[in-house]
Specification:
Blueprint lengths: L9 E6 L2 E6 L4 H8 L9 H19 L8 E6 L2 H19 L4 E7 L5 H14 L5 H9 L3 H9 L5 H14 L14 H5 L18 H9 L2 H6 L29 H9 L4 E6 L7 H15 L3 E10 L2 E9 L3 E6 L6 H4 L1 H13 L8
Parallel strand pairs: 3-4, 4-5, 5-8
Antiparallel strand pairs: 1-2, 1-3, 6-7, 7-8
Helix pairs in contact: 2-3, 3-11, 4-5, 4-12, 5-7
Family: Belongs to the peptidase S10 family.
Main location: secreted
EC number: 3.4.16.-
């Protein structure tokens, strides 16, 4: 999650039955920027992604005007907690003059919304799931919390105390636990290659074994790249996370929850959902931020905290504020919830698109 791959920054957009993804590498200006890497200044990740995706959507609607009046929803996960709200904000600003985007809502999964709250919730998650000891939990919350460590790391000045704390945390949590889904086993070959993937033993035969490794191999086939008209610029091999560009990593510390607040004020429904087995951006931090935002906006609880169902099983928990701001967990889901719990994720998205509460019974 800490590495922010330029080439894989994608948005999921739904236009009542039309689903497509948008990647920032679609734009000629970005191709030029990537091809001239030597001597280039640092790329301000947040400056480009929202603006360039707005340009893509403007041109897409010009080419396919038959979709202009359809309801538009945007969703994304992890760092999308930054660039999805930013894009939605630009859409609202653009609509003041041009009325192009029929934006009806955004959904953010395990999103980075506020640096300290999101990152420091990791300690409690590790401790409550038995991944670290009582003594390490105390150090991780008093001597050096995770946001401090990341801040120091990005500035190239990790203090001795933070180095000791993180060394102990890493030892106890083990690299053989997938931090994006702490309850599942890992694909051993992927652990050794620093690529964490879910294994099928505990999620059933519907989940592929080491799917990330297989995807990387597939997308590096020349015939596949030719069919996709994909070019490798400045790199020899496509990878899930790329370090080709030098990002402004400190942008991570800029809160985006304030933008979410402005979207709600503008009448845009917002749903924040969390796979409840993710320790990278744990549900506790997201739930706290949504609750705080509801209080700041004076939104009353319209759906009290309760379970919701997928089929005859509990799909997760949810709470709704003012029928415009909602929080939901997806039980048993990872950092990328739709991958590990597709059926439950489908129920959640379907309810959101239809503007209905999550199922209260089966």
């Amino acid at each position: 999650m800490l590495s922010l791959p330029w080439k894989t920054v994608a948005l999921g957009l739904s236009l009542l039955g039309v689903w497509f993804s948008v990647e920032v590498e679609c734009f000629p200006a970005l191709f030029d920027r990537i091809s001239e890497l030597p001597g280039q200044p640092k790329v301000g990740f947040q400056q480009y992604s929202a603006r360039d995706n707005l340009v893509f959507l403007q041109n897409w609607f010009l080419k396919f005007p038959q979709y202009r009046n359809r309801s538009l929803f945007i969703t994304g996960e992890s760092y999308a907690g930054h660039y999805i709200p930013q894009l939605a904000e630009l859409m609202i600003q653009y609509n003041k003059k041009h009325k192009l985007f029929n934006l009806k809502g955004i959904a953010l999964g395990n999103p980075v919304l506020e640096f300290a709250t999101d990152f420091n919730s990791r300690a409690e998650f590790f401790w409550s799931h038995g991944l670290i000891s009582d003594s390490t939990y105390k150090m991780f919350t008093t001597s050096c919390n995770y946001s401090r460590y990341v801040s120091e790391y990005y500035r190239g000045a990790v203090s001795p105390i933070c180095s000791r704390v993180m060394s102990q945390v890493s030892t106890e949590t083990s690299r053989f636990v997938d931090k994006y889904d702490v309850t599942l086993d890992v694909c051993i070959s992927s652990v050794f290659s620093q690529s964490n993937v879910l294994t099928p033993q505990q999620v059933g035969e519907t989940i592929d074994v080491c799917v990330e490794d297989e995807t990387v191999n597939y997308l590096n086939r020349q015939d596949v790249q030719k069919a996709l008209r994909a070019r490798l610029l400045g790199i020899r091999k496509w990878t899930v996370c790329s370090n080709v560009l030098d990002y402004e990593l400190l942008d991570l510390e800029i809160p985006s929850i304030t933008i979410v607040s402005q979207l709600v004020k503008a009448g845009i429904p917002v749903m924040v959902y969390s796979g409840d087995q993710d320790s990278v951006i744990p549900l506790t931090g997201s739930r706290t931020l949504v609750n705080q935002l509801a209080k700041e906006l004076g939104l009353k609880t319209t759906v009290p905290y309760r379970v919701w169902f997928e089929g005859q099983q509990v799909g997760g928990w949810t709470q709704v504020y003012g029928n415009i701001l909602s929080f939901a967990t997806i039980r048993g889901a990872s950092h990328e919830a739709p991958f590990s719990q597709p059926e439950r994720s489908l129920v959640l998205f379907k309810s959101f698109l239809e503007g209905r509460p999550l199922p209260e019974a089966f």
